[in-house]
Amino acid sequence: MNRHRILGLIALAAVLVGFYFGGQAPLDQLQGDYTRIMYVHVPSAWLAYLSFLVTFAASILWLARRKPVYDRIAESSVSVGVFFTALALMTGMIWGYPVWGTFWDWGDARMMTTALMFFVYLGYLALRRSIPDPAMRATRSAVLGIVAFFLVPLSYVSVIIVRTLHQGITVVRPDSPIDGEILLALLSNVGAFTVVYLAFMSVKTAIARGEEQLEEQSAAADATPAGAAITAPNLEKVRDV
Amino acid sequence: MTRYRWFVLPAIGAIVVIIGWMVFLSLGENLVYYLTPNEAIEQRAQFPDGERFRLGGQVEVGTLVATSDGVEFTVSDGAHEVHIVHQGAPPELFREGVGAIVEGAWDGDVFRSDQLVVKHDEQYQAPEDEGHPYEVPTDA
Q1: Taking an 8 Å Cβ-Cβ cutoff, which residues of chain B contact chain A?
Q2: In CATH, what number is assigned to the domain containing residue A121?
């Protein structure tokens, strides 16, 4: 078994454990079964933040050391992060409709910063497609990977610094107002999703490496002297006309 | 130029988000998402009857009454209270003791709203927990 498959199986097992705890935990007295959406929503948002943090760090390392592996990590982490940002936005809407009474709110700072984060990192992937030269692509996207990261802490603290419809911070505070079993279920799913992140990253960085080799091969093919195909002009034929 | 077409979706998305947010914030002429009852009363002069804004607070226990086309209740921030006359069906989880945000306008001393969302807080508690603020009657 290769590394990808082993990590994938561990991730699957971790998700099943998360499912178990999510099914076992008591329901919030007000939200009932809607509580369970949290076990997908919060881990997705966590992975979005984690992914972009990894990209931030890998981008700095690329600029400092210029090793292709850092660029591959930065790119792969954005791909995974954009996926989980979308999942967090969608599960948030599904959760918000019954609990708040609305899918979306244009005035909510958490929703706006998260949506902005989604589109900016989608722009990161578009930027990569628009630059053919690998070194230049890595450098420019590293700059964006560092600059765009300010959206992550902004999104996280948005529920503290301004009034929002989105609830405040539950877990990371000294007097966490959450039932012990609900917290256990939440943390087990956060852990499970983190293993899923590692499994995705393992595959995605391998794909990025393959793409890089392909790019090098086609660059080498393009480098064949263009003059080889050119022959001297047939002047005799011209004279005959 | 075909390399740049991949920017279209992210660019449109980001612009829509920024414009949507700015339009929302300029509507209330206020850089806050909602006013508290205290602020709404203080700024009464800036919001004449019919001038829409958002108001948020805790639904006072014992004030929720069903009407023919909606609900009436009082929201409070602990010190000040505003009476809300809401038109329309409230969300499923709306009840006394929860946080609510209404959108509408002053009509004399009452606030007439036509949009109502429940602001669930960051607490997650199993039903058997005692002394929790959500231990309130569920029927209006």
Answers
A1: 3-4, 6-7, 9-11, 13-14, 17-18, 20-21, 23-25, 32-34, 54, 56, 90-95, 98, 101, 116-129, 132, 134
A2: 1.20.120
